[in-house]
Specification:
257 residues; mainly alpha; 15 helices; globular; MPAB/Lcp_cat_dom; oxidoreductase activity
């Protein structure tokens, strides 16, 4: 009897989440947009986000990767565990995380999965984009999220609503970027900003006051692709990643299953 996986083995989603390069770009885009989310104060409630912003966002990305490569039953258990953790935070704070806030995080996984792969590899077909949507929408349904879109086209519309309604520049935005700089150091922080510039939408750039000049970003991206073609990208990553994250990033290139 063949093993049933949450995401089938030939899925484009496995290709996207099977490489540390793409996952780093997903992380970079989400870290920028998440700083603008109106519900970001929820992660400040536990104190974990300001204390270790990279680790907190990295754990979210790692959780998503685990689900993508897990057997169906294991993935469902992981999703249930994730829902229970959020439920406990709500109990401790005696308030409920808004439904739109849950959806926004899910939408970030969809949009930055697509955008990161397209920046680093190639354009996705509409069928592949729908497949990315379907995988993460199933995660949302299993978490019991309300108001999810029924298809990719509806998601596109809801995504635009999010960009116009659910973001604001706040104290938390400033603080998170200060923490990014503190934990990365100046050089790595500048690299993060350039990576963010390649994947975040215009709305996010405008709110973060990031100039829409792509010369430096495109030059860096071209150099990285050259390093990858020459098979020396691992040396480059070792130079730019904080020491305590090198092993975690390296492990992302070794998907289970």
């Amino acid at each position: 009897m063949s093993t049933e996986y949450f995401v089938h083995k030939n899925s484009i989603v496995r290709k996207i989440w099977g490489k540390s390069d793409t996952i780093i770009f997903i992380f970079a885009g989400a870290s920028a947009e998440f700083a603008l989310n109106k519900a970001v104060d929820w992660l400040y409630f536990t104190g974990k986000l300001p204390k270790d912003p990279l680790g907190r966002l990295f754990s979210t990305v790692a959780y998503a990767k685990l689900i993508v490569f897990a057997e169906r039953e294991s993935a469902i258990k992981a999703i249930s565990s994730m829902a229970a953790i959020h439920s406990q935070v709500e109990t401790n704070r005696q308030a409920k995380i808004p439904d739109w806030a849950y959806r926004d995080v899910l939408f970030m996984l969809i949009v930055y999965s697509i955008k990161s792969f397209e920046v680093l590899e190639r354009k996705l077909t509409i069928e592949e984009k729908r497949e990315v949507f379907d995988v993460f929408n199933r995660v949302g349904l299993l978490m019991g999220l309300k108001g999810l879109p029924s298809n990719y086209e509806e998601w596109q519309s809801m995504r635009q609503e999010h960009l116009s309604q659910n973001m604001k520049y706040s104290y938390y935005t400033d603080d998170l970027f200060r923490q990014y700089r503190k934990h990365l150091g100046l050089v790595r922080y500048r690299i993060l900003l350039e990576v963010q510039r390649t994947v975040i939408p215009v709305e996010v750039k405008e709110m973060l006051r990031i100039k829409n000049t792509m010369f430096v970003s495109n030059m860096g991206l071209s150099l990285y692709k050259l390093a990858k073609a020459l098979n020396i990208d691992s040396i480059l990553k070792a130079m730019v990643l904080p020491a305590n994250y090198k092993e975690k990033v390296k492990a992302l290139d070794n998907p289970p299953g």
